[in-house]
Design a protein that fits this description.
The chain is of the alpha+beta class. The protein folds into 2 domains: 48 residues; 116 residues, Beta Barrel (OB fold (Dihydrolipoamide Acetyltransferase, E2P)). The protein has a 5-stranded mixed β-barrel with strand order 1-3-4-6-5. The two termini are 13 Å apart.
Length: 175
């Protein structure tokens, strides 16, 4: 029975650390090197884009979308470009229209760009990565690396190791 409780606590620690790593992966910035191919603006409410099948039934907002293509793999990706304002995650982004104008300029020139974003792309729930910033990338320039995220991943791996050792020591010391 003690062994079962010990493994239950280890499973709880594993679950907690998976949630923490998922939060870091979602909220911290990541980078993609891509070419912008197009964009659009959609009017959305709490239920998603306004359409015939989804009429407006509350406050609406405009959401910008940026369409991209990876120059090497030709894989396409859609990004959302929406202000975070004062909400989570705390990027305090109030310039989505300016970011959209930059994206339009880069799309006209078919320039290689680096998109800084947060979030996940989940096609089955229509969730897109949100653009934080866009910058031009020279051909020989290397893309940015999310070092801060890596530091947190290592930190959480270390705390998971310590928590497993604590639980094992707690249960094994009383034998």
């Amino acid at each position: 029975m003690r062994s079962l409780i010990k493994y239950f606590f280890i499973l709880v620690m594993l679950s907690l650390h998976i949630v923490l790593i998922g939060a870091v992966n979602y909220a911290f910035p990541s980078y993609d090197t891509t070419v912008i191919t197009g964009m659009e603006v959609r009017r959305v409410d709490k239920d998603g884009p306004i359409s015939k099948s989804n009429p407006q039934d509350g406050p609406v907002r405009d959401v910008y979308y940026i369409f991209t293509e990876n120059p090497e793999t030709k894989k396409v990706m859609t990004y959302r470009n929406e202000d975070t304002e004062w909400g989570f995650p705390l990027y305090f982004k109030f310039d989505s229209a300016l970011t959209q104008a930059k994206a339009q300029a880069f799309a006209n020139d078919r320039k290689l760009v680096q998109i800084k974003y947060y979030g996940w792309y989940l096609s089955w729930v229509h969730e897109f990565r949100n653009v934080v910033s866009i910058k031009s990338l020279e051909v020989d320039e290397s893309p940015s690396t999310p070092w801060f995220s890596y530091v947190f991943y290592v930190f959480f791996a270390f705390t998971f190791f310590l928590s497993v050792q604590l639980v094992r020591g707690w249960f094994d010391s009383e034998k």
